[in-house]
Amino acid sequence: MGPFLITNFVNSLSRKPDASSHNNGLILAFILFFAKTVESLSQRQWYFGAQRVGIQIRAALMVLVYKKSLSIKYTSPSTGKIINFINADIEKIGEFCLHIHEVWLLPFQVFLALLILYRNLGAIPSIAALFTTVLIMVSNTPLAKRQKRLHSKIMEAKDSRIKSTSETLKSMRVLKLHSWESTFLKSLLQLREIERSWLKRYLYTCSAVAFLFWASPTMVSVITFGACITLKTPLSPGAVFSALATIRALGEPIYNLPELISMIAQTKVSLDRIQEFIMEEDLDTPITNKSLEASDIAIEIEDGEYTWEINSKKPTIQITERMKIWKGYKVAICGSVGSGKSSLLCGMLGEISRMSGAGIKVYGSKAYVPQSAWIQTGTVRDNVLFGNQMNEQFYEAVLDACALNQDVLMWADRDLSVVGERGMKLSGGQKQRIQLARAIYSDSDVYFLDDPFSAVDAHTGAHLFKKCLFQLLSNKTVVYVIHQLEFLHASDLVLVMKDGRIVQSGKYEALMQDHHSELVRLMDGHIKSLRQVNPLQEHNVVHEGNEIEMTEKNFECPISRSNISESNNEETETGRVKWPVYSMFVTSAYRGALAPVILLCQALFQGLQMGSNYWIAWATEEEGRVSKEHLIAIFALMSGWSSIFMLGRTVLLSTIALKAAQSLFLGMTTSIFRAPMSFFDYTPSSQILNRSSKDQSTVDTDIPYRLAGLAFALIQLFSIIILMCMVYWKVSLLFIAVIVISIWYQAYYITTARELARMIGTRKAPILHHFSESISGAATIRCFNQEDNFFLKNLNLIDNYSCVAFHNSATMEWLSVRINFLFNFSFFIVLMILVTLPSSSIDPSLAGLAATFGLNLNVLQAWVIWNLCNVENKMISVERILQFSKIPSEAPLVIETCRPEPKWPINGRIELENLHVRYSPALPVVLRGISCTFPGGKKIGVVGRTGCGKSTLVQALFRVVEPSEGRILIDGLDICKIGLQDLRSSLSIIPQDPTLFQGTMRTNIDPLQQHSDQEIWEVLKKCHLAEIVRHDERLLSAPVAEDGGNWSVGQRQLVCLARVLLQNRRILVLDEATAAVDTATDNVIQKTIREETIEFTVITVAHRIPTIIDNDLVLVLDEGKTVDYDSPTQLLKDNSSAFSKLVTEFLRRSSKSDCHLNLNWRIRKDYNVIIFIHVDSVGSRRKSNQSVTLCDRVKASCSYEGYSIWVYLLQQTKIVYCDLRRIIDV
Length: 1226
Description:
Elements: H1 2-14, H2 19-71, H3 79-96, H4 102-121, H5 123-170, H6 172-178, H7 181-230, H8 237-278, E1 287-289, E2 297-301, E3 304-307, E4 317-319, E5 323-326, E6 330-335, H9 341-349, E7 353-357, E8 360-363, E9 366-369, E10 378-379, H10 380-385, H11 392-401, H12 405-410, E11 418-419, H13 428-441, E12 446-450, H14 458-472, E13 477-481, E14 493-498, E15 501-506, H15 508-511, H16 518-537, H17 541-553, H18 579-587, H19 594-619, H20 628-673, H21 677-682, H22 685-701, H23 703-727, H24 731-776, H25 778-783, H26 787-836, H27 844-854, H28 857-883, E16 910-917, E17 927-934, E18 939-943, H29 950-957, E19 965-970, E20 973-974, H30 980-984, E21 987-990, E22 999-1000, H31 1001-1005, H32 1013-1022, H33 1026-1030, E23 1039-1040, H34 1049-1063, E24 1067-1071, H35 1079-1092, E25 1097-1101, H36 1105-1108, E26 1113-1118, E27 1121-1126, H37 1128-1133, H38 1138-1154, E28 1169-1177, E29 1180-1183, E30 1194-1200, E31 1203-1211, H39 1220-1225
Parallel strand pairs: 1-8, 6-13, 6-14, 9-12, 12-13, 18-25, 18-26, 21-24, 24-25, 28-31
Antiparallel strand pairs: 2-5, 2-8, 3-4, 3-7, 10-11, 14-15, 16-17, 16-19, 19-20, 22-23, 26-27, 28-29, 30-31
Helix pairs in contact: 1-2, 1-8, 1-27, 2-3, 2-26, 3-5, 3-8, 3-22, 3-24, 4-5, 4-8, 5-7, 5-8, 5-22, 7-8, 7-20, 8-19, 8-27, 11-13, 11-14, 16-35, 16-38, 19-20, 19-23, 19-27, 20-22, 20-23, 20-28, 22-24, 22-28, 23-27, 23-28, 24-26, 24-28, 26-28, 32-34
Domain ABC transmembrane type-1: 1-266, 597-873
Subcellular location: Membrane
Domain ABC transporter: 299-524, 910-1144
């Protein structure tokens, strides 16, 4: 409407003043004002509706992706990929809703513009304009295709980077302990460099597209007016200004078309990625029967083959015989590392792909305790209830059975204390007991427990076994994977696994009859470990019997290493985005040197544009004022120079964008990698990933252009205002008032909008966290049938986010409507003034130019306001990135003035002097004045109840947590005076949680790539992994999935062992290094460690007594204090020592399996009885009539209900331990 009416308006200004022209001018001004008002209201309503639809589409897609993520089995989607879906792909699709109507609007706008040109200039000039427009659009097509291809590459590179970032964050503790963070940081930066190379090409392609947009009106103008002059078409100021306004209007579709094509291309890429993910076929689901009917069968196992790799032809496990497990049975699954125990359990749960067979039927509801504990963020109570209603009596019974009562009393908010992400604030034993409590509280029909006792000490394990399996679950069907073979005797059925097959099944006693069976081989290893303990403890049996019973009755749960405090909510700034944030962003690229150059280019471009338009209007005002050749030459020259300045501006802007984005990324990533572990303990990884993905993407491709767009819009706006003031200077007073009102409106709006924008970021992080948490615990969620509850929680989180996003867009439209009306009214006042002023007091060409540019005043004003608000909202991303660029760092990696010798430590002597450790000043002391010396080259065992401070001592040794008092000396050097890299790279550790990284077996064993294949194979043989690795034809290049998901937990621990043996360092720390392996494998590993570390100082933190019984020294901790420290032999001589009690507990528990004696003889009270028991081998027991002289010696004696009992125990090889109290009970 504007270009169509501007001809008449300019002509009315050029005519002689009379009443008729005056009235026509007023009418035209009013029509223009009315048209602009309708346009503004329609546009705002369109944008508001489009944004609302976009929010709904985002929410719907998030729900679809979550639902799909929760249903995928066998191959869990990577967390990084899912986060990229949410932060990049779904956001892009939502943004496209703003542009969707442009698909039909753009051709319609082009048609209207050409129609106006035809009316004003004729057919040939309008055809020339059409030809130029089509040529520009066609030249944009290859650029748009290139944009689509590059955007796909950027998204792929971003997927890889976010995936790597996610994995690195989960493994940060391991990286710091091994001093690998620099290597992994370098690897992450390499992934970023790949992403940056694609981003560079993409941004420079965008520069070419932007240049075509800004230069297109100039090119169309030159061609169109050139055609007019060539054809000698008469030009009047009215026709010229109308044509210029039309061509400027034509510039919008010319610009928007490539942007629209680019947007369509990006949206298509995102839609294809999400569609490919959502359309993945769901594989077969487990066969379950909720109704038990009349059957007493709990599980039916049919013949079949199962595999973790979907397209693999080699099965992971093979079941060759049908089997029925009856209701109430306790079924134990045992076997060596990698034999398929966990896979069999997953087969029963339907979590592993079935290659053939009828499948496994499970009747009734299920509960599952995975080997790697899965704890959801929330309170302890939430984790135990897991969506069920509270039953106080049963809840307390479950806490007691799972040995959680004492822990709960120690925590600040009892069971309402909030655990950290993935239970990060809990010890390994606490996590295991909480998820066991979750399973028991569910009151299911069938329970699947995957090695539930490995993470707890012997005493706690015995308590859990007795209270959980044989009290609360006495009538339930329980299938449990077990490495503690002393628990096998209590099972109704034992399944022995080897090489993915069930090689034995039956009662424990029956299976032990076959002396050459796999179970006997496993038991031999177990007995061998007991014999390491037993000879030292034989004389304590009688004396400790009653004391052990007392200990169990008065069971005390281990003390927590620190109180669990509330999780920190995401820290956000308040108020305006501070100017230093803008300053740091601008100066992060070449110290801001290019910013003035870009602004100058834009100012020169704008000035030349106005100058060229004024020139052609002035030259055509009077016939023959300048020659036609001169007119078009000057016009083309000015237009050409404006295009050159525009090209310089777009290229320099892309250069700044690349540099600034990379600078901010490096600052944040480096700061995160140098942060202390306490930062990761209290900061959910979703907050870091949100900054690394969404905020970084905003900085990469959005903020520089928003910031520049604001500056350019302001230059254009002020140039138009200055032009209008040149026509009539008093107009400046009007615009001063308008600008003041606009600033007031904007200030009123921004206080709300700014906080809404921050809330969008903080409401997004919980969604990402919930996605990540649900993916990692999908198997548990499905087993407990909690999909609906988690789905509802996801809906609530998405609703909270969508609500804030809706209000954010609504507030922007509220502001835009008011400011639009304000500037439309100002333009109307200016037009009224131009009409009413005497013609002699104004320059008609200048007035026409002002009116022509004024047509875009409301668009420019809206652009300024939108950019102004968007810039501050978007700058919050910079603010959030800078927030994580200022994290207090750990001690320096290297202190040049205090570096140890290259071969330090030489002796491996460790001295602890009055060591006090606390996790933060607000928390209590965990280690309380420990003083002792670990001699060089000795083997030191560290034992104690769960939570007594064992892991804290290890962390203090590696300076993961700094001593608050005292010091640690290694070979006489205070470790707090040297750099962390010098310290940690001189020590080796196998942490409690075995961690593998996505890659190959070679990169996992030798992440720093410092060793040859031959050396790697040697350590693999020592760790009994060589054969397992050789099963894969890719050998050392065998793939390792994310988190090592395609390897069993026991195999992962063996890989970790291989790592440290390859490092060959003087000090080795084993923190529950063999908790997830069977006893036989543990014995072999301990033998390997003893042989390979003869001259090394080895510190072993263990729950298994045999693991440390042959150590040179044993340190017993209790409540953070040293209670015993001496050789095992000396400690066992003192029956009152804490270590002696621990050993007795272990033997008592173990004896229930290894000397399980069922005596059912009647004894008359008036007889003194001598009982001889002859044991030929394990499992073969008979009453003996041999004389006393054949026995080695009296094993034990006591009085029982008025008569005396002597128990003798004879074995062909040696006397073994016998549980006297069990005989007496019988």
